[in-house]
C-alpha cells in the first residue's frame, strides 16, 4: 500500500512537473513567435529603407549627370562670351587705330606741307603761293612801330614767347622783317639790283626770300643795330638765339660757312619745337637733313 502511495506521489509529481514544463515550453514558444514576428517587421523596414536608399542613389546619379551637362553648357557659353569679348576688343582696337590714323591724316591735311620744305637754288616757292592765317605782329615786338609786319598765326605765340624770353635776359630783341609776299620781294629785289647791281647774288636773294614767303621766317634785330644788321653775329642776342631759339621752335636757316647760302645770323625759321630741338641737340643744320626726314616732323610742327 505504501509502495502504491509512493507511486501515486511520484506520478503526481511527474504530472505536475510535466505541467510546469509544458507551461514553460508553451510560454517560451509563444515568446519566440513574437520575437520572430518582430524580426520580420524590422527586416521589412530595413528592406524598405534599402529600396529608398537605392532610389535616392539613382536620383542623385541622375541629378549629378544633369549638373555636369549644365556645367558643360556653362563652359561652352562662357567660352562663347569670351570669344565675343575678344572680338569686340579686337574691333574696338581696330576702330581706335583707324580713328588715330584718320586723326593723323586730318591733322596733316590741315598743315601746309611747304612749311618744312627746303628751298634751294633750284627749288623755289611758287609765285602764287600765299600762306593762310597771317596775323599782324603787335608793334611792341617790331623795330618800326609804323610798319605792319605779319606772321603765320599758329607760330605767333612762340615768337612772342621767344622775344619775352630774351627780354627776361635783358636782351631787347625786335622783329625787323617777317612775312614777305612775292610782290614785296620783287620790289625789294629791284631795290637791291639798283643798289648792288645784278652781280649781287640774285639766286641767294630768291632763296632767302622763299622762306619769308612762307610766313614762318623772321629777321631779328635790336634797337641799337636797327636795319643795318652789321655784326649781328657779334651781338649777345645772336649768342642767346643760338642757345635758346630752339625752345620756341626756331632754327637758324643759313649758319656760318654753310654751302647753300650766305651767312644770315638774323634769319630764323620756325620748324616746330621737336625738329628745332633735334637740330640743336645734334648740332645739325636744317638744310643738311634729308627732305623725307624733315617731312616726318611736319605733323609735330605746331605741337
Ligand atoms: Zn630773312
Structure overview:
The protein has 303 residues and is an alpha+beta fold. The protein folds into 2 domains: 1-110; 113-300, Muramoyl-pentapeptide Carboxypeptidase, domain 2. Helices cover 58% and strands 7% of the residues. It has 7 helices and 6 strands. It has helices spanning 2-109, 153-168, 182-196, 202-214, 236-244, 273-281, 291-295, and strands at 134-136, 150-152, 174-177, 217-221, 250-252, 267-270. The strands form 2 sheets. It has a 4-stranded antiparallel sheet with strand order 3-4-6-5. It has a two-stranded antiparallel ribbon with strand order 1-2. The N and C termini lie far apart (155 Å). The structure holds zinc ion. Residues 177, 208, 212, 217, 219, 264, 267 line the site of zinc ion (ZN).
Average pLDDT rating: 88
Which ligands appear in the coordinates? zinc ion
Distance between the termini: 155 Å
- The number of strands is 6
Could you say which structural class the secondary elements and strand pairing correspond to?
alpha+beta
Number of domains: 2
**CATH C-level label of the largest domain:** Alpha Beta
Return the CATH architecture of the largest domain. Answer: 2-Layer Sandwich
How many helical stretches?
7
User: SSE string, helix = H, strand = E?
Assistant: HEEHEHHEHEEHH
As for the CATH topology of the largest domain, it is: Muramoyl-pentapeptide Carboxypeptidase, domain 2
Low-confidence stretches: 196-204
Strands of the widest sheet, in order across it, are 3-4-6-5
Amino acid at each position: 500500500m505504501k509502495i502504491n502511495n509512493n507511486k501515486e506521489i511520484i506520478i503526481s509529481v511527474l504530472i505536475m512537473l510535466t505541467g510546469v514544463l509544458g507551461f514553460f515550453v508553451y510560454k517560451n514558444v509563444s515568446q519566440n513567435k513574437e520575437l520572430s514576428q518582430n524580426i520580420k517587421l524590422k527586416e521589412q523596414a530595413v528592406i524598405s529603407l534599402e529600396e529608398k536608399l537605392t532610389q535616392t542613389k539613382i536620383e542623385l546619379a541622375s541629378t549629378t549627370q544633369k549638373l555636369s551637362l549644365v556645367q558643360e553648357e556653362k563652359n561652352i557659353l562662357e567660352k562663347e562670351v569670351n570669344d565675343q569679348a575678344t572680338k569686340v576688343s579686337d574691333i574696338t582696337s581696330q576702330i581706335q587705330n583707324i580713328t588715330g590714323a584718320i586723326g593723323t591724316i586730318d591733322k596733316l591735311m590741315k598743315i601746309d606741307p611747304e612749311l618744312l620744305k627746303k628751298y634751294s637754288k633750284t627749288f623755289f616757292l611758287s609765285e602764287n603761293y600765299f600762306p593762310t592765317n597771317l596775323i599782324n605782329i603787335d608793334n611792341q615786338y617790331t623795330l618800326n612801330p609804323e610798319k605792319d609786319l605779319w606772321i603765320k598765326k599758329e607760330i605767333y605765340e612762340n615768337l612772342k614767347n621767344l622775344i619775352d624770353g630774351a627780354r627776361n635776359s635783358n636782351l631787347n630783341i625786335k622783329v625787323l622783317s617777317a612775312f614777305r609776299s612775292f610782290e614785296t620781294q620783287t620790289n625789294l629785289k629791284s631795290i637791291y639790283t639798283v643798289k648792288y647791281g645784278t652781280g649781287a647774288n640774285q639766286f641767294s636773294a630768291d632763296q632767302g626770300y622763299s622762306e619769308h614767303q612762307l610766313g614762318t621766317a623772321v629777321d631779328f634785330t635790336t634797337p641799337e643795330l636797327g636795319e643795318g644788321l652789321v655784326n649781328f653775329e657779334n651781338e649777345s642776342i645772336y649768342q642767346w638765339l643760338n642757345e635758346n631759339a630752339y625752345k620756341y621752335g626756331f632754327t637758324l636757316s643759313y649758319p656760318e660757312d654753310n654751302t647753300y647760302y650766305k651767312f644770315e645770323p638774323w634769319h630764323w625759321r620756325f620748324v616746330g619745337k621737336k625738329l628745332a630741338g633735334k637740330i640743336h641737340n645734334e648740332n645739325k643744320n636744317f638744310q643738311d637733313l634729308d627732305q623725307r626726314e624733315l617731312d616726318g616732323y611736319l605733323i609735330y610742327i605746331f605741337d
